[in-house]
């Protein structure tokens, strides 16, 4: 996907400072620069795409935004690609914000659907945009978890249509660890929605990535141990092949007599 609209703010009027609100009180959290940049852009009224490795704290950005939205008496939608993740977020947000503040809508369940914060699958949100846009009149933001599903061959249309048909007043926060073309997506979003879309990228891993192997018996092996294990198993296979080849050859010779 390509778009002509730039994501830069040059030559465009910045959203008013009235968008800035203090967060509700909570445990002190030290934010990384990319988190601060994303939250700053959201408070200024921009739609934002965040691309950062797993474990770096993308969810914290969403939580800070939701604290602000709920403290202002507004609503938000949090979408996820699968029901299991929706159920998990429903429980997590219920503990964080209070059960009365959070609802869940999937193909199987509908709980507290009048709550200001609604968790649902992306397909459900897309359907709301088509059939019940008036129900989103007081909803200021939609958060797309696992934004890289936009490129999914089978389900990507649900994300595309959700972005295109979300009411114009709603701002978007997209979160992904793996989206490779985040700036191209931001340009397309800016084009179809007629707004500036900020891109926040973080490339450093908060937790170093380690590779390990699990043997058939359940042992966790490092690279050297794994190579030794593989070599031993390959030698056993070769021995077995030689053994059975010999047995079969001997059987054929006996049959010839």
TrEMBL record:
Q: Which PROSITE patterns match?
A: HELICASE_ATP_BIND_1 (PS51192)
Record domain Helicase ATP-binding: where: 39-197
Signal peptide segment: none
Q: Which UniProt keywords apply?
A: ATP-binding, Helicase, Hydrolase, Nucleotide-binding
Identify the Pfam families for this entry.
DEAD
Q: Does the keyword ATP-binding apply?
A: yes
User: Which residue windows does the record flag with biased composition (Basic residues)?
Assistant: 11-22
Which SMART domains does the UniProt record give?
Answer: DEXDc
The UniProt entry's GO biological process terms, in alphabetical order, are:
nuclear-transcribed mRNA catabolic process, 3'-5' exonucleolytic nonsense-mediated decay
* Any single Gene Ontology cellular-component annotation: Ski complex
The UniProt entry, under Gene3D superfamilies, shows: P-loop containing nucleotide triphosphate hydrolases
User: Please, which domain of life does this record's source organism belong to?
Assistant: Bacteria
- Output one GO MF annotation: ATP binding
Span list, region Disordered: 1-27
Q: Which SUPFAM superfamilies match?
A: P-loop containing nucleoside triphosphate hydrolases
What is the name of this protein? DEAD/DEAH box helicase
Native organism:
Desulfofundulus thermobenzoicus
